[in-house]
Amino acid sequence: MKKEQRQRIVDRHRDSLKRHGYHPNALYWSSIEIQQLRFKILAAVGMKEADSLLDVGCGFADFKSWLEGEGTAVKYTGVDLSPDLLRVAQQKHPDAALLCGELLDFSFAANAFDWVALSGAMNEQLHDDGDYARKMIAQMYHISRKGIAFNMLDGRTINAHDLQSVEPHKMLKYCQTLCKNAALLDAYLANDFTIYMQK
């Protein structure tokens, strides 16, 4: 990601945090219910108690809270570009390992985490025909031991100039070049899809 694109994301989240405080709206989720529905779909990939999880674009680390509320306490690591969001996340979760940057800034080993998950962190319009998203997915899969789950905006229903959306079956086809056991879920929301890649 280019330096100016990274800075735009950091600035947008600083502004949204000032406007909304600790709330899903600060992360550009329309409601807590929508945010948590996405969490439910991601967790259903197979996350279990005591699994290690890397949450890419973790924001406030709300996925950690949701998993714990469901009785699935994981060994949680979060990574996010926004130092402002991470400060709130650290206050909410002093036991969490939280890293500031984007995934590709870090040299995680292969199979470093049981699961890698991403929710909403590839929605930024980068005007690169999905190249950055494909690099992210490949790296997420490489550093996972059991697999990954991620969501994106559905290009069949969303075509906004400021949001990155993708045709789900095209993304699934790419994922199948990395993982034979890749599956598409697209029946839970009209404008969103999730892909599982299980090892």
The helix content, as a percent range, equals 25-40%
Characterize the overall form: globular
Distance between the termini: 28 Å
- Specify the biggest β-sheet: 8 strands, mixed
Short characterization:
The protein is of the alpha/beta class.
Description:
- With 199 residues, the chain is α/β, with parallel strands linked by helices.
- The chain has a single domain (3-198), classed as Rossmann fold (3-Layer(aba) Sandwich).
- It is built from six helices and eight strands.
- The chain has helices at 3-20, 32-43, 62-69, 83-92, 131-142, 168-178, and strands spanning 52-56, 75-80, 97-100, 113-118, 144-154, 165-166, 182-185, 192-198.
- Strands 1, 2, 3, 4, 5, 6, 7 and 8 form an eight-stranded mixed β-sheet that branches.
- Helix 5 packs parallel to helix 6 (168-178).
- It is globular and about 40 Å long.
- The model has no long low-confidence stretch (mean pLDDT 94).
Topology:
Blueprint (H helix, E strand, L loop, with lengths): L2 H18 L11 H12 L8 E5 L5 H8 L5 E6 L2 H10 L4 E4 L12 E6 L12 H12 L1 E11 L10 E2 L1 H11 L3 E4 L6 E7 L1
Parallel strand pairs: 1-2, 1-4, 2-3, 4-5, 5-6
Antiparallel strand pairs: 5-8, 7-8
